[in-house]
Amino acid sequence: MVRSTCRPVMPVSLNMNMAMPSWFDIIGLSPDSQEDEVGIKQAAENVKALIDQEVKNGIPSNRIILGGFSQGGALSLYTALTTQQKLAGVVALSCWLPLRASFPQGPISGVNKEIAVLQCHGDCDPLVPLMFGSLTVEKLKSMINPANITFRTYSGMMHSSCIEEMMDVKQFIDKHLPPVD
Length: 181
Fold this sequence. Notes:
Blueprint: E1 9-12, E2 18-21, H1 37-56, E3 65-69, H2 71-82, E4 89-93, E5 116-122, H3 130-143, E6 149-154, H4 163-176
Parallel strand pairs: 3-4, 4-5, 5-6
Antiparallel strand pairs: 1-2
Helix pairs in contact: 1-2
C-alpha cells in the first residue's frame, strides 16, 4: 500500500511570503541558510503521527518506507532519523538533510541507525544543487551504517525525475519491502 500525503499551504519566505504547498518555511537555498526549526519539527511530528496511525491499522513500522521529493525527501530523512519507530527505509529524492547541525557528529543511537537509504539527485539541479545531496550523504554516512546508504546521481537531470531514477526507487522498494505470505 502506498499512502501519499499532501503538503499544507503556507507562506514561504523564499517565495516572497506568498502561500504555496510546503511542509515548512524555506528561508534560503544555501547550506548555511537559516532553517525553520519549529516548522521542520512540527512537520516531522505530523509524519510520525501518520506512522503511528498505520501501525494502529496493523502495518508493522518495519514495513514502512518514508519517501519524498525535494522538501518531502528532506522531511522523510529528518523524520526517519528522529522517530522511535523502526522503519524499512527512506527514499530521498533531490533533497537535503534539514537541521543537520542538530545531529551528533558520530553515529546515532536511535532505532534507525541501520536504516536503508536511497538518495537520488540530478547533477544539473538548479534549485537544490547536487552539493546539497553530496553534503547530505556524507553526513548520513557518519550517522548510520554507510553500507546501507545508496547515493545515485543522474546525468543531465534537473530538479525533476527520470525513468532511471524511478527504476532505482522500484528496486529499492522491492528489496526492502519483500512480499509477505
